Structures are given as C-alpha cells and as structure tokens.
Known about the structure:
Strand content: over 45%
Number of strands: 11
Distance between the termini: 50 Å
Number of helices: 4
Largest sheet: 7 strands, mixed, barrel
Shape: globular
Strand order of the largest sheet: 1-2-3-4-9-10-11
Amino acid sequence: MxxxxxxxxxxxxxxxxxxxxxxxxxxxxxxIAALLPPGIDTSDxxxxxLTIYNLPVNGEPEYGILITADASYQGTAGEYxxxxxxxxxxxxxxxxxxxxQPKFPCHTDYFxxxxxxxxxxxxxxxxxxxxxxxxxxxxxxxxxxxxxxxWVKVSRQVGGGKGYDFPPHVVHVQGKYGPGHxxxxxxxLTLHESPWDPIATQLPMLEQVSAHLWWPEYLSREITxxxxxxxEGFWPYVDVISGSRWxxxxxxxxxx
Length: 256
C-alpha cells in the first residue's frame, strides 16, 4: 500500500503516476434535475466534479476530462456522468457501444510545473473549462474511497423512428480506491460558454468547493448493467450533443 504522506515519484517521461486534477463545485440542484432522466434522482448534495487526467490507455497517453453531477439510483448515492472528453478517437466509439460510457472528442492541456498547475479543455474549437492553481498543503484522505457512477446504455431504432433497438438501461460503475496521496490546490476554475459543452449555462458554478491533485491507489473497478429506465420517459433525453449526455438535438447544439 502506498504511503499517503509521500508524493509518488517516477522516472522522467513516465505517465502511469500522473495525478488526477479533481475539482468540485456547487451548482443549482434544479439544474442537475433538468439533466437527469426519469429513474435517476437528485441527491442531498448538488456538486459537480471535474476530473482532468492523463492515463495510459491502450498503451499510450489519454488526456481527458470527466464531468459528473451528484445523483442517486435506486437509493444509492453516486455521480451521473455527463461526459468523458478524451483525445483518443479509437476509444470513443467502442466505449459508447459496449458500456454506454459517454465519451466525445476533446483536446486537453494539463500540466504541472513546480508549484503551478494548469488545465484547459476544448471541443470543436470552443474552450469550455480552464483551471489555474498553485500547490497547497497535503490533504490526505482519511481512508479508502468508493465511487458509484451512472452511465446510460441505449440504442435508437434503426431508420430514425421513435423507438429503440435496445431500450435505455442504467450502467453501474463501482470503483474502489485506497487513500493514495492528495495535495490541496489554491486555484480558480473558470467555466466558459460553449454550444458543444454547455457546462457554464447548464451547470453554472455557485461556489468552488475544492481542488486537489490526487494520486489514487486503484483497487478495483466493476461495470455492470443495473436496471432499465422507462423508455417513454427517457425519450426527451435520447438526443445528445456529440457523445456526451448533454441534451441536444440530432447530436448538435443545445436545445433552446
């Protein structure tokens, strides 16, 4: 088990120990509710979590951003995934088709230089998230962490009619982590308006709660089909932007 008081060190160029940049902010609970399909419920908290990362996937670096909002399914608290913006095209479609993981193409710049941490995410030439910060104090997790994340797997009817070849189902992603190592950041998150990733308008920031660099200890990750959603109730949510779960129209701009 890793020492939570010791920052991991790697050889130059090694990417397997890049920390996650985890940013949490509070938004309007009604804004989250508007994005959740019937059957997935709001939680007692109304936080949005942004996870910006560089991880080895398929033997090469994958830069990305995960956008989740607090949500519950059948009484279990977790996070509803609105999008995984990644720079590996080969992983986008297979992830969507297999598990319903809401991936879409995104360019991410993310680096640390001494005590400075910088990140920028852009899609279709629109920058929608930026973060600038400096290292603060160590902020260790008291113990292990378990995350429940909700995806939706669905396939519309061939030919474009109102129907499904595979009706909507919730996919449960359960991850377990050791405390790893965590450092608080003194920084500022900025949400930028974008028709492709409307986080600034659909999940506006009321308060920035926290920002950390986190070197997690990966213990397990399980992806399972959890249960069906009401097909009729889900229909207004079937049109999304790109491969995300932002509500759109025919894969394009946000609904009016």
